[in-house]
Amino acid sequence: METLSLFGILKISLVIPVLLLMSILMVAVFIERLLFFSRMGKIDPFLFKRIKDFLIAGKLKEAEVAASQGKGLIAESLEAVLVASHSRERSEMDHVLTLYFQRTQSMLSRRLGLFGTLSFISPLLGLLGTVLGVMTAFRNLAGAQSSGPGVVAAGISEALYATAAGIFVAVTAALIYNYFNFKLKHVLNSLNIFGQEIALIVTLGRDV
Predict the structure, then answer these.
(1) Number of C-alpha atoms within 13 angstroms, CB side, residue 111?
(2) How far apart are CA 161 and CA 16, in angstroms?
(3) How far is Cα 152 from Cα 135, in angstroms, rounded to an integer?
(4) What tens digit of pLDDT does each residue of 15-39 get?
(5) What residues contact 186, with CB distance under 8 A and at least 6 apart?
(6) Which residues contact residue 4 at a Cβ distance below 8 angstroms, ignoring those fewer than 6 apart?
(7) pLDDT of residue 159
(8) pLDDT beyond 90 at 101
(9) Which pLDDT value is given to residue 1?
(10) What is the pTM of this model?
């Protein structure tokens, strides 16, 4: 059986170049999200412990300075909660925490829907490419009366490349989608726990 080159595979069906473009887009967004999560979705338990120790010692100003020196959305949120704590109103801190929780969720979940969409439509596109390829193979067989079943088999074999490519893109996109969703939940849970604990310490004036 003749081995197809990459250029030969791209020529099998119009669907395969489309899947290739979708793969390139998927990799580009994956790298962008990976860099954004590593920079803004950082969870620093040591920073939280430092802030907590300052609060227990009654050093609110030092806790704010420590939070301002942290990096990422969680550090920004904790700093905002600490600023809101000047009012000594628990409801004020809860409102700020809710606002920053939603802001963090919005920023981290941006463009993640692309991976879900790719994992859904890629197998369908691959199947479409295969169906079109099989139709072409049968048409070629009908046009070449002297040819045998080998012509159809070769055509179907080539057409299946589209299905394989679609499944490959779908599986990769699903893995990336689940990975970032897991990271997102972890960041949001950490933000909620840290923020609630800070609000309680400020309100009660002691460790919880």
Answers:
(1) 13
(2) 8
(3) 10
(4) 888 999 999 999 999 999 999 999 9
(5) 43
(6) 12, 158, 161
(7) 78
(8) yes
(9) 53
(10) 0.83
What tokens were used for 106?
Answer: 């919005």
Query: For 145-170, what is the mean pLDDT?
Result: 78
**Counts of helices then strands in the chain (DSSP H, E):** 8, 0
Identity of the amino acid at 11: K
- Residues in the chain, how many? 208
Find, among 14, 21, 20, the residue nearest to 129 by Cα: 14
Q: Tokens 């070769």 belong to which residue?
A: 154
pLDDT at 175: 97
With vertex at residue 194, the alpha carbon angle to CA 193 and CA 200, rounded to the nearest 5 degrees, is 90
Report how far residue 25's alpha carbon sits from residue 6's, in angstroms, rounded to the nearest whole number.
Answer: 19
40, 39, 73, 63: which is closest to 197 by C-alpha? 63
Q: Give the largest Cα separation in the chain, rounded.
A: 92
User: Is the pLDDT at 142 greater than 80, yes or no?
Assistant: no
Distance CA 160, CA 163 (A): 5
Query: Is residue 40 within 8 Å of 107, Cβ to Cβ?
Result: yes
Q: From residue 33, how far is each of 13, 26, 29, 88, 188 by CA, in Å? A: 31, 10, 6, 37, 16
Alpha carbons 8 and 175: distance in angstroms, whole number? 28
Handedness of CA 43, 44, 45, 50 (dihedral sign): negative
pLDDT band (50, 70, 90) for residue 153: confident
Two structure tokens written together for 161: 């490349």
Q: What is the pLDDT of residue 6?
A: 67
